[in-house]
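It is worth pausing here to work through a concrete case rather than discussing structure prediction in the abstract. The textbook approach is simple: state the sequence, then state the predicted structure, then interpret. We follow exactly that order.
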Amino acid sequence: MGSRTKSSNALRGRPGGWYRGAEVDRLSEEEAAVIADRLILRAARQAPTIADKSGPLRTAVANVIREQLTDCTTTQCREDCRKKIVDIAHKSLNDQEVNALMEAEKQGYRSIGNER
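Step two, the predicted structure:
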């Protein structure tokens, strides 16, 4: 089976059918939570105190990332989402933690090495 066929099959929500819009949005919501966890874990390696604040931070960051995954179609929108993450970070983190989170975000959303 070619990689194009594998990719096509991976996008199917159920046998013989594609994911519907609401299902795609739900998958984006789940992926946003995974990405938020990944960013916070990366940041916690640099600023361990961020772990104590991760609950509300995770939810807020995941909401912005979900918005980015489902609604952003322009570079400006993606930049605006990054600014929202910075604003969220400044509201609940100290400077060292903010810097650690933003460095984690600069590494991208995809997993690196053994990350989940």
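Step three, interpretation. The chain has five helices and two strands. Residues 29-106 form one domain.
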